[in-house]
Amino acid sequence: MLVRYKKSCEKIAMGLLSFMPEERELKKLKETMNIYQTNSNWHLFLWKEGEAFVGLVGIELAEGHYTLQHISVNPSFHGEGIGHAMVEKVQQLIPDLEMHGTAFTEAFLEKCSEAKLAVI
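Structure tokens predicted for Riboflavin biosynthesis RibT protein:
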């Protein structure tokens, strides 16, 4: 289940973000969290399985599209389709805008598209 980030989950969000290679350093991690907390165009969501938060997805809204800035899943849950599910839920939340990726998220988005094509 996708839930909007709340300040009370900051440590959980930072832990999940730290699984991304470009977010491993504490200084960079704090800067990223500050952007999500202060910039109204940046939105962070957590993925909850049962009682645990196991994934995170962050987007930046822009005119006519949004960019998937961050996507991370706890390594213990890799291969369970959580990343794909998070992308689908975000697309359902913002159906009128096109999703773009960054240098770090584009490859994952391409995998999601390939998986959809394989199912059809």
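Residues 2-119 form a domain with the Aminopeptidase fold (CATH 3.40.630.30).
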